[in-house]
Protein: Membrane protein
Organism: Variovorax boronicumulans
Amino acid sequence: MPKQLIVAVFDSVDVAQKAGHDFRATSEKNEGFHIESCVLVQKDAAGKIIVLDTETRSFWGAVIGALTGSLIGMLGGPVGSAVGLAVGASAGATADTVRMDMLDREFVETVSNEILPRQVALIVEAKESTPFSVDNIVQGFGGTAFRRPVN
């Protein structure tokens, strides 16, 4: 199964958590979708990306993937960069291990423009044989999904 970086954007934490629950249930079925890591983030009123508290079950998987940490940093500007570097460091990432070409400017700009202030995003590193299951979940909760293949 190809690996994907999936960003699913929703209007509220509650809705994102419900979608995340369905993501997890789909992953546990072992039917073409497997979550490797996931983090719940929100864009604040000033446009900065913040990683939500662990009480919201923001972290899934053993660690946040290095690519996810890098994306958080790129989306969040200076504050996000500090968060992204900290998250990436906790995942054992270094500048040499994160393939920045995977996060091309167009993808980052698209995602950044689509996450409006106070919206929430699930950033997922997953193996996915087909996008249909995740797309159905995201659309069912009124969200929008963006993908970037990961080699």
Summary: Confidence is low (pLDDT under 50) at residues 54-58, 77-100. DSSP finds four helices and six strands in the chain.
